[in-house]
From TrEMBL:
UniProt region (Disordered), positions on chain: 347-368, 385-430, 453-480
Major location category of this protein: other
The protein's name: FERM domain-containing protein 5
GO cellular component term of the entry, any: cytoskeleton
Span of domain FERM: 17-298
Repeat recorded as keyword: no
Domain of life of the organism encoding this protein: Eukaryota
Organism, as annotated: Oncorhynchus tshawytscha
InterPro entries cross-referenced by the UniProt entry: Band_41_domain (IPR019749), FA (IPR014847), FERM/acyl-CoA-bd_prot_sf (IPR014352), FERM_2 (IPR035963), FERM_central (IPR019748), FERM_CS (IPR019747), FERM_domain (IPR000299), FERM_N (IPR018979)
Signal peptide: none
Database matches in Pfam families: FA (PF08736), FERM_C (PF09380), FERM_M (PF00373), FERM_N (PF09379)
Length: 572
């Protein structure tokens, strides 16, 4: 009896597994789901936990054993997508940024989007000028601590919060001045809404940068925004194609192609090289989903897309879900009491570690709601739950800023050069989409950049974005990181191999089609099958002429050759 109960328990354990999802406020949701459960089931569980109805803007991101990030497909089995052993670790992030955050129906949705963009600002995906950065940080400050109170907020209180990878005293003073004078009386939801409206006006709003190289071997970042396809080099936008101009997205191996029609029937093709074939496929799928979500009028217009022009090769993918216009229409029908929002308190977060290693609080909160097994924690460390593939690298220009951190100012006497307060590059060091050898690359990049590095901070860093060092070492650090991150264009040998494989594939398919046609011909001419459509074909004059004038002589010739070959074999 006991053995029967234990065997039943083991079978139940085999059919279930634990899954942990880190949410946007750094809390964790852990659940047990069936082994054959699909992504939609887990996504609905999380949305129910958050009391979220406008859920089409969000998605679940995970990392495969090869350290490549993916979006969980809601129509497929979770276990088959993860390709690893449970327990599984994932994170909830904004997948499709709202074109107009102010138009979102519910405050809970705006709050979650606010948390996402706050992460983007810290990790360097949202680039902006000094004045815009100070205003955005002041909105965050107002939303999290309320009005300025001299009794609670001593001089330099804004330095205790980490809004960007770098803080300068000048920028901190600007943030404090705005918070003290311009935002008095704003409630958290009002400050969050103002923050979203300000962020939406920036060029890099909604950017999910994918590291690539152009045909000349120059590093570039490809991104899909609510308004179109973007190519960034440094902090400059070198290409922008609206979604109605993009006609096709293709990839083969590491090569990614964008086809577009611009005004006056001008057709352009952009070609880029991803670090790995897996990263290129992920880039293509992201592009297909974003184009369908923002471009189409109805989800019924969504079609299965192939990565190649030939039906027998390449990958096929279909976006499953509602499009942006349908989501807005559905949101307008929501009629319920606004759900209560539990804004997390200010506690240290490993998402935004202190750069100066001091007792500094952070602007991204983290509260533990349940204890998690150490293996799950190790999975979260490898996940580095950044919402996007990688931060955007930016270069100092006249319209950007790069504040120096206080730690660098204190280390100036030890030989560190001081970076100008008028240039900002929150992610001048970055990691590629595949995050293999994550901690090693982080250590090398940070040591090259001259910033202090500790094992603890490496483990705490959410996206693995190291600090920027002195200006003299900037070019060397870029060369070091770029050498490790990008994929160089295919060599001539690889191009020849790719061409040969394509030709062989085409030849095999052609031979297969010929065999199929031969089989059908034999069935038509030699079989006695009395099927209606075969009988109709046999009775046509064209077929009778072909049968008596071509097929019968060919059959006699083959039979003669076979008898001749048989006689030779018998005589030997």
């Amino acid at each position: 009896m006991l053995s029967r109960i234990m065997s039943g328990s083991i079978r139940n354990l085999d059919r279930e597994y634990d899954c942990t999802v880190r949410l946007l406020d750094d809390t964790e949701y852990t659940c047990t789901i069936q082994r054959d459960a699909k992504g939609q089931y887990l996504f609905d569980l999380i949305c129910h936990h958050l009391n979220l109805l406008e859920k089409d803007y969000f998605g679940i991101r995970y990392v495969d054993p090869d350290k490549q990030r993916h979006w969980l497909e809601v129509t497929k089995c979770i276990a088959k997508q993860m390709k690893s052993q449970p327990p599984f670790t994932m994170c909830l992030r904004v997948k499709f940024y709202p074109p107009d955050p102010a138009a979102l129906k519910e405050e809970i949705t705006r709050y979650l989007v606010f948390l996402q963009i706050k992460r983007d600002l810290y990790h360097g995906r949202l680039l902006c000028k000094t004045t815009d950065a100070a205003m955005l940080a002041a909105f965050i400050l107002q939303a999290e601590i309320g009005d300025y109170d001299p009794g609670k907020h001593p001089e330099g209180y804004s330095s205790k919060f980490q809004f960007f990878p770098k803080h300068s005293e000048k920028l901190e003073r600007r943030i404090s001045d705005i918070h003290k004078t311009e935002l008095i009386g704003q409630t958290p939801d009002t400050s969050e809404l103002n923050f979203l409206q300000k962020a939406q006006m920036l060029e890099t709003y909604g950017v999910d940068p994918h590291p690539c190289k152009d045909v000349s071997g120059n590093p570039a970042f490809l991104a899909f925004t609510p308004f179109g396809f973007v190519v960034l080099q440094g902090n400059k936008r070198v290409h922008f194609l609206k979604w109605n101009e993009v006609t096709k997205l293709k990839f083969e191996g590491k090569i990614f192609h964008i086809y577009a029609n611009q005004k006056e029937d001008k057709k352009i093709i952009l070609t880029y090289f991803a670090p790995t074939p897996e990263a290129c496929k992920h880039l293509w799928k992201c592009g297909v989903e974003n184009q369908a979500f923002y471009k189409l009028e109805k989800s019924s217009q969504v079609r299965t897309v192939s990565s190649s022009n030939l039906f027998f090769k390449g990958s096929r993918f279909r976006y499953s879900g509602r499009v942006a216009k349908e989501v807005m229409e559905q949101s307008a029908k929501i009629k319920r009491e606004p759900p209560e929002i539990h804004r997390a308190g200010l506690v240290p977060s490993r998402s935004c570690p202190s750069i100066t290693h001091g007792p500094r609080l952070t602007s991204v909160p983290r509260t533990r709601r349940r204890a998690v097994h150490i293996s799950i924690m190790e999975g979260l460390e490898s996940l580095r739950d950044s919402a996007h593939s990688t931060p955007v690298r930016s270069v100092s220009h006249g319209d950007s800023f790069m504040p120096r951190s206080r730690s660098l100012a204190r280390d100036a006497s030890e030989g560190s050069a001081v970076i100008s307060d008028e240039a900002y590059s929150p992610s001048d060091s970055m990691l590629p989409t595949p995050v293999a050898e994550h901690s090693l690359e982080l250590t090398v990049a940070r040591q090259v950049n001259g910033a202090p590095c500790s094992i603890k901070e490496e483990k705490e860093s959410e996206a693995g974005t190291p600090s920027v060092g002195d200006a003299g070492d900037l070019s060397d650090s870029r060369a070091t990181v770029e050498g490790a991150e990008g994929a160089s264009p295919l060599s001539e040998v690889e191009q020849v191999n790719t061409f040969v494989l394509s030709v062989l594939r085409l030849l095999l398919v052609t031979i297969g089609l010929l065999f199929v046609l031969l089989f059908l011909l034999i069935v038509l001419t030699e079989s006695d099958l009395d099927v209606a459509f075969l009988r109709d074909i046999r009775q046509t004059p064209e077929f009778e002429q072909f049968h008596y004038e071509y097929f019968c002589p060919l059959r006699r010739w083959f039979a003669c050759k076979l008898r001749w070959a048989g006689s030779l074999l018998i005589n030997k």
